[in-house]
Amino acid sequence: MDRIELELYLNNLLQTARFKDYCPNGLQVEGRRRVNKIATGVTASLAFLEAALEWGADAVLVHHGYFWRNEAPQITGRKYARLKTLLSNDLNLFAYHLPLDDHSEYGNNAQLGAKLGLSGDTRFGDNDLGWMSVLQTPVSLAHFIAQVEQTLGRTPLVLGDTDIELRRIAWCTGGAQNYFDAAIDAGADVYLTGEVSEHNLHTAEESGVAFIAAGHHATERYGVQALGTHLSEHFNLEHVFIDIHNPV
Questions:
Q1: For the chain, which domains are there?
Q2: For residues 77 and 61, what is the distance between their CA atoms, to the nearest angstrom?
Q3: Backbone phi, then psi, for 63, in 5-degree steps?
Q4: What is the CA radius of gyration of the chain?
């Protein structure tokens, strides 16, 4: 398909104009005009770009792209190596940050919730990016931790009493540890995100609300996969998800 048509479709689907983000959303680096093969991944690292090129991609679609707010503007070092790889191979880079977190079907929060069997009954936090599910039958924190570990394939860091019962489970993928207070205010019994900060321990102890840090990369693998699958089915594109291991 045509690159311009693909960009317009993605921008409209993900409603990029709604967001004031930390980076540009959409086509970040222009490549060849025709797109037949698209590779998706969490982050546009050099290892990911090289794997996508080996597969034969015409475009890559990621959650974490480039040109973040306050980053140095010079094209040197790692930034030079990444951009050179894209430009010398005429490879398109599409990146969607908050719009991909937010989308009600293909978003990171929607997809992680689906993997865990949770429905987003309510929203909270800035831009309503946080999701919360109200369980019909309470489960123990220990039971939910085991479910998270089995689903994500990694042992999460847990702050809180594993014997407590959970009825309201809140989550926001990635580095959303600062949404913990908003989740507590929304009535959550546990909050799941990717990363953790020092102060989260004290908040968990003093509030009685548990906190689960399950990995930034691990919690954000599913939205971009679902979006890539949708594109492949809707436009008859070849699609592959490339998972570059990241323990963080």
A1: 3-100 (3.40.1390.30), 108-219 (3.40.1390.30)
A2: 23
A3: -90, -40
A4: 19
Q: Where do we find the tokens 């951009």?
A: 83
Q: In sequence order, what are the residues at sequence separation of 6 or more whose Cβ sits closer than 8 angstroms to the Cβ of residue 70?
A: none
H or E segment and range at residue 144: helix 141-152
CA distance 94 to 239: 14
User: What is the model's pTM?
Assistant: 0.96
Q: Give the amino acid at 89.
A: N
State the pairing for strand pair 210-213/238-241: unpaired
- Tokens representing 19 are 């967001």
Q: 21 is written with which tokens?
A: 């983000």
- The amino acid sitting at 25 is N
Pair of tokens at residue 141: 């924190």
Distance CA 141, CA 155 (A): 14
Name which of 120, 60, 135, 47 is nearest 90 in CA terms.
60
How many alpha carbons fall within 13 Å on the CB side of residue 17?
Answer: 5
For 28-84, what is each residue's pLDDT tens digit?
Answer: 999 999 999 999 999 999 999 999 999 999 999 999 999 999 999 999 999 999 999
What does the pLDDT look like over 20-29, one tens digit per residue? 999 999 999 9
Distance of CA 233 to the CA centre of its chain: 21
